[in-house]
Specification:
With 133 residues, the chain is mostly helical. It has four helices and two strands.
Length: 133
C-alpha cells in the first residue's frame, strides 16, 4: 500500500491557513522549550507543566472549532471562516487570554505563574494545530 504524500495537499490549502498553523506551531515549540528549560532549572515543577499543557490542550481543542474549514469552488482551495459559534468561542478565548494571568495569580506566584501561563499557551497551540486537521 502506498503512503499518501502530505505535500500533495498543500496546494489546496489557503495560504492564510498554512501561515496560521505555522505560527501556532512556532509559538508552541518556543513555549515548550522555555517550559523544558524552567523545569530543568528546578524553577517549575513538571506536574504543573504537564497539568498546564493538558488543560491548554483541552482549551485548544475547543478553540479549534472557532474556524470552520470548507472547500471554495472559485479558488479550488480549503479555506477557513468564522461562523457565529466560532465568533462566540473567539470572544471567550480572547477573554481567557487577556485575564489568565490575573486569575491564575490568586493561586500561583512568581516563576511558577510564568511557567503555568507558558504551559497553558503551549497546550492551547498544540490543541489548535492537532484539531485543525
Amino acid at each position: 500500500m502506498k503512503k499518501k504524500d502530505k505535500s500533495a495537499v498543500v496546494p489546496y490549502l489557503d495560504k492564510r491557513l498554512i501561515r496560521r498553523l505555522r505560527i501556532y506551531t512556532l509559538v508552541m515549540v518556543i513555549m515548550l522549550l522555555v517550559i523544558i528549560f524552567e523545569v530543568l532549572q528546578g524553577a517549575f515543577s513538571i506536574a504543573w507543566a504537564v497539568g498546564g499543557i493538558l488543560i491548554g490542550l483541552g482549551i485548544g481543542t475547543l478553540v479549534s472549532r472557532m474556524y470552520r474549514l470548507s472547500w471554495d469552488e472559485d479558488t479550488s482551495q480549503v479555506i477557513s471562516r468564522i461562523d457565529w459559534i466560532g465568533a462566540i468561542i473567539l470572544v471567550f478565548y480572547l477573554t481567557f487570554v487577556f485575564t489568565r494571568t490575573h486569575y491564575l495569580s490568586y493561586w500561583v506566584h512568581g516563576t511558577p505563574l510564568l511557567g503555568l501561563v507558558f504551559s497553558l499557551t503551549a497546550g492551547t497551540m498544540l490543541g489548535r494545530v492537532l484539531n485543525t486537521v
